[in-house]
């Protein structure tokens, strides 16, 4: 038992130190794996944005009063996932990562979370072993896709708006539709915090697709460089209602590519669960190319289905 380490909730003064730990830990891992570190692993404001989005889900580990570990997590209704999680190189091997995960799980245990998850590299035996000991099973993969920015004509009958352009009353109505659409696909799923936090922290906005009746699809778009390079629109979550179907999904993807062009970004990046075959078929049809894959580990029911038009990144 390591009695010299204290794990507690993250506070605002910890955020800068947590960012430094993220860069050092993942940078050293990248250097050991590839033999070089071309650039910092994460954007300079990742820790700040994650803390602002879900402060109750962020924790730090301290030794001698100094931050040596951190973990970020977020709850999307019945789903909670954590990451990134990092321990400074000089503090690894002391069980700190386990204690950070346990703190996250304790935070969300009473919040009706049904499924817990994370993403990690499929080639990282150390991390897979750690999370397996904590009850997480490697049940899926998250497959990344990218497409170049471009102005495309929308399918007939659909229109695109931005959440940030709406009045406050319209925003409340849009968030109700976001929750409805997500719950249609996975019972209890509610990623509306991603919509509001992107705008509040000024890292992005949400693309909203409507047919002639109501909103049928949404995608959160980050244009600030958090996890991806500086010239990429990254999509942490997107979903399409059953009524919207593949045509609404095509409209959503075209809206994202147009947004990238308007923001002078070179491409759009998304991630989709491996068993969501229908979504992958539409992505390929709309000009998206496979990029890389991450191992997706879970505790609780596995609710991926082939027909779900749902994109989500757990990192």
Give a short synopsis of this structure.
The chain is of the alpha+beta class and 315 residues long.
Which stretches are poorly predicted, pLDDT < 50 over at least 5 residues?
none
Mean pLDDT: 94
**Strands ordered across the widest β-sheet:** 1-2-3-4-5-13-6-12-10
> How would you sum up the major sheet?
9 strands, mixed
- The CATH superfamily of the largest domain is Gcn5-related N-acetyltransferase (GNAT)
Give the total of domains: 2
Number of strands: 14
Tell me the series of helices and strands, N- to C-terminal.
EHHEEEHEHEEHHEEEEHEHEE
CATH topology of the largest domain: Aminopeptidase
Number of helices: 8
Report the top-level CATH class of the largest domain: Alpha Beta
- The CATH architecture of the largest domain can be named as 3-Layer(aba) Sandwich
Report the sheet-strand fraction: 25-35%
| Mass-distribution shape | globular
Give the class from helix and strand content and strand pairing. alpha+beta
Between the first and last Cα atoms, what is the distance in angstroms? Answer: 29 Å
If you had to describe this structure to a student in words, what would you say it looks like?
This protein has 315 residues and is an alpha+beta fold. The protein has 2 domains: 5-113, Gcn5-related N-acetyltransferase (GNAT) (Aminopeptidase), CATH 3.40.630.30; 145-312, Aminopeptidase, CATH 3.40.630. Helix content is 33%, strand content 30%. The chain is built from 8 helices and 14 strands. It has helices at 15-34, 46-53, 96-108, 125-133, 168-185, 192-200, 245-262, 277-285; strands spanning 5-9, 59-63, 66-76, 79-87, 115-120, 137-148, 159-162, 204-210, 215-222, 232-234, 237-240, 267-273, 289-299, 310-312. The strands form 2 sheets. Strands 1-2-3-4-5-13-6-12-10 form a 9-stranded mixed beta sheet, with helices on both faces. Strands 7-8-9-11-14 form a 5-stranded antiparallel beta sheet, sandwiched between helices. Strand 3 (66-76) and strand 4 (79-87) form a beta hairpin. The longest helix has 20 residues, at 15-34. The two termini are 29 Å apart.
């Amino acid at each position: 038992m390591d009695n010299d380490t204290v794990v507690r909730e993250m506070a605002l003064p910890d955020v800068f130190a947590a960012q430094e730990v993220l860069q050092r830990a993942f940078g050293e891992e990248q250097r050991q794996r590839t033999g070089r570190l071309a650039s910092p692993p994460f954007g300079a404001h990742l820790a700040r944005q994650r803390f602002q989005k879900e402060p109750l889900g962020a924790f730090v580990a301290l030794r001698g009063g100094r931050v040596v570990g951190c973990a970020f997590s977020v709850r999307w209704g019945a789903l909670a996932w954590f990451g990134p999680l990092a321990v400074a190189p000089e503090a690894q091997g002391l069980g700190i990562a386990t204690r950070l995960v346990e703190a996250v799980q304790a935070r969300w245990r009473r919040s009706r979370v049904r499924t817990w998850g994370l993403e990690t590299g499929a080639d990282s035996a150390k991390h897979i072993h750690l999370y397996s000991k904590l009850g997480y099973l490697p049940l899926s993969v998250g497959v990344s896709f990218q497409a170049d920015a471009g102005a495309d004509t929308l399918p007939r009958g659909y229109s695109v708006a931005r959440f940030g352009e709406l009045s406050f009353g319209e925003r409340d109505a849009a968030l109700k539709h976001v929750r409805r659409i997500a719950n249609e696909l996975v019972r209890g799923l509610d990623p509306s915090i991603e919509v509001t936090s992107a705008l509040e922290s000024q890292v992005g906005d949400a693309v909203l697709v409507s047919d002639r009746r109501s909103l049928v699809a949404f995608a959160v778009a980050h244009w600030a460089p958090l996890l991806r390079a500086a010239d990429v629109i990254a999509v942490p979550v997107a979903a399409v209602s059953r009524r919207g179907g593949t045509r609404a999904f095509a409209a959503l993807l075209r809206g994202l590519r147009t947004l990238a062009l308007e923001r002078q970004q070179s491409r759009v990046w998304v991630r989709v669960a491996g068993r969501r075959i229908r979504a992958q078929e539409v992505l390929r049809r709309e000009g998206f190319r496979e990029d890389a894959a991450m191992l997706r580990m879970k505790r609780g029911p596995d609710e991926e289905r082939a027909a779900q038009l749902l994109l989500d990144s757990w990192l």
